[in-house]
Specification:
The chain has about 130 residues and is α/β, with parallel strands linked by helices. It has four helices and five strands, in the order E-H-E-H-E-H-E-H-E.
């Protein structure tokens, strides 16, 4: 099965993506990184405009100072109506606490996708 994902940075682009037939609308701010998080006000406006008509994914951002901050960011996006939250592979993946906290989120039915970057070395042990 082939599906179309379109990344957007604002409500106007989200509506265009919806009318273009996107199966998944992906929210992110490329100005703050490849997985830059879109601000929560814009996120809320897009969630309201799309109103459940397609799957929404969003980046949680790349530069979290702690596992707690990352998990709060994930929870906030899930609570806003985002269906899938993307997180960047980081040094957190080497910490047991990370997996304990992420498991709490996934057990509450939050869908999380870990993103590896092609230009970074890949540690297959993380898989």
């Amino acid at each position: 099965m082939t599906q179309l994902l379109i990344s957007v940075k604002n409500t106007q682009e989200a509506i265009l993506a919806l009318h273009a037939g996107a199966d998944v609308i992906d929210l992110k701010d490329h100005n703050v990184g490849a997985l830059g998080a879109l601000d929560m006000q814009e996120t809320a406006e897009i969630v309201e405009a799309i109103d459940g008509r397609v799957v929404l994914s969003a980046s949680a951002g790349e530069e979290h100072v702690s596992i707690k901050a990352l998990c709060q960011n994930i929870q906030m996006r899930a609570d806003s109506g985002i269906d899938i939250i993307k997180i960047a592979i980081s040094d957190f993946f080497y910490m047991d606490e990370f997996f304990i906290e992420i498991q709490k989120l996934t057990k509450s039915n939050i869908k999380i996708v870990a993103v590896f970057f092609a230009d970074a070395s890949l540690d297959l042990n993380l898989l």
